[in-house]
Amino acid sequence: MAKHQRWWWGWTCGAMLWSWTGAVQALPPAAAPEAVKSFVRQLDEAINQRNLDYVLKLYSNNFTHGDGYDREALAKSFTRLWQRFPNLTYQTQLTDWQPQGQGFVVELQTDIQGTEVQKSRQFNLTSTLKTRQTLVQGQIQRQDILSEQTQLTSGKEPPQVTVHAPDVVTPGQRFDFDVIVQEPLRDDQVLGTAVTAPVHPGQWLEPPRLSLEVLSSGGLFKTGQAPDTPGSQWLSAILVRQGGITVVTRRLRVGTP
User: Strand, helix or coil at 78?
Assistant: First the structure.
């Protein structure tokens, strides 16, 4: 397989949606008022129906996002997402909540699945987002990511992997990013590489040039250092074998744990 192949890697659904803020004292989901439960149902329904007007009604005109998205950028991102993954499905559950002023702060876990076809090759998407949202009068004022991992696979036997990486580190801290192949390699040759990149609007659609190397061990084992300023980074890895391809992306938050 030729080196410097271009792979669409850095896509994450969360790149369009959320970033991180500080901790809050949360309450159990069962105790949530009907307004909060109704919001969660409406959010899933709007996205699964691919109804952009319905989705945008759930976002305030003054909506803010830690990654720099505004309401207009959000609309474009959803449109592109639905074009690439026409069968995309969301399943969201409330994990915590608390009253705040005239609204609520809620924490959600969203599981996302979908398929995309590129040049006769099918890619299967799975993604898990843990998010925090500030709600006022049934609309989202701010969206924040707590953790995020997205995986794309293609082929009959893509590498099955386990990812070990922190969700958050302090500025300048060193960290490990390990992507371990679960099954024995035996005589099967696996190529791979890992990269990091800052999170910013629009970046998720820009594939980098990746130089693939033969892996002599059962995965990728990298040590990195966080930037000196707070923010978010993508930790991405691609592994290629004869039977398929696996691309995994993990968000690393740089700030106060």
Answer: helix
